[in-house]
Amino acid sequence: MLYWLTGFSDGGDFFNLFLYITFRSGGAFFTALVFGFLFGRPLIDLLRRRQGQGQPIRSDGPESHIVAKAGTPTMGGVLILGALTVSTLLWARLDNPYIWMLLFVTMAFGLIGFADDFAKVTKNTHAGVPGRVRLLLGFVIAALAAAWATWSHPGELQGQLAVPVFKDVLINLGYLFVPFAMFVIVGAANAVNLTDGLDGLAIMPVMIAAGTLGVIAYAVGRVDFTDYLDVHYVPGTGEILVFAAGLIGGGLGFLWYNAPPPPSSWVIPAVWHWAARWAPSRSPSSMNWCWRLSGASLWSRRCRSSCRSSISSAPAAGSS
Predict the structure, then answer these.
(1) Which residues bind Mg(2+) (predicted)?
(2) What pTM value is reported for the model?
């Protein structure tokens, strides 16, 4: 949406910054992160009041997990989806079909997850929407998204599957491209769903994958990068980086309230900030500050949680 401000630019003023995908990606990251900070606590309090005892916990899980998760409200994904949607609509180009494809798939699968959690809470059971129903809905959504993507691709790339490492190899799947894409989309969605369950276990791989795919999409969406790397050029995919940055920011905002502070996690913000120290000469300033401030955010979160744990475990005054 803010991209439209470039219409007021004379080529050398502040509005000209909105032309750059890297600048808008940084804006999407910070918007999603701040959204998580501002609305995370009110959302958690609302869900706790509405759900009471929270989501029923499976009895076949780790004992520590059963005890720690008791009474924890579910539907925390609403915070991530809200942050992602707001940041994407605000900073991405709304005339880009890939943005709307991503939002469609995200919101559609998000509704399935919401319905599943809602059924678990209302029925007071860990079995929500039946698995077959979820799979059927997932395949329908994936079929629509795959057909949409095929229609949006350049003519010479429609139905083609690029093979990693082998730059000149394209496999023409033809009509099999849609079922193949359906399998990948539904498989990835269920893989994350199966991974979820412990704090930070699903969102961290999702953030890493989003960052990687965002960079790849940005590279193949630029003529100069594709010429240098000798890969296929797909116009418009660079805008996916804005979506990926919003997802990472929303994920960090979610982790602010979700992740416990294991000792090993101290190294993450330390390395992150150290990487940012060497990044200025090699990355745009907005993305560099994403690295720095998000690393500082994680570090402050760990400090606060560790202090809180130490205080709560300390013996009371006068006790033996």
Answers:
(1) 193
(2) 0.77
